[in-house]
Amino acid sequence: MGTDKATLRLGGLSFVERIAEALRSITSEICIVSSKHVPAHWDLPVVADLLENRGAMGGLHAALTNAGSVYVAVVSCDLPFVTGQLFERLAQMCEGKYEAIAPIQPDGRPQPLCTIYDVATCRVVADEMIRSGKLRPRELLSRVRTRWVAFDELADLNGAEMFFMNVNTPGEYESARWSVGDE
Fold this sequence. Notes:
33% helix, four-stranded mixed β-sheet
């Protein structure tokens, strides 16, 4: 991207602010996991990656290690179109039977970075995976009891077609800006 994706803006809000607003529908405890400097005006606690150079798994591990609740919702900062309705739907599926609630994107791929994790179980698995050099969050989902949420189960929600639009390149950012009417 050439710049920190978390600070990019859509509809007057940064990606982080948009995601935090969506998460407020299920929790009041929101933090940012980052190895970078975080703007103070976001007024959110910051949890640093505990282990360097572990990518998304390192961030997931830090979130699980620092969580103060039974479940934690993990969302990548490059998913600025998630909504409160999406998280409410996923949270409704946390019935104690599952250790992760993971949506499936319209293209059939699981989305481990927009998932609700059972902290106790998933932290142990994340620790084991990192020690053995396995750094793919999707693999963590395959090692725990995961409730896979088919996109059809989410398609009725407002904005569902945009939930998993990753914004990783300048072209994708321009498309995202166009979709919300930003100039």
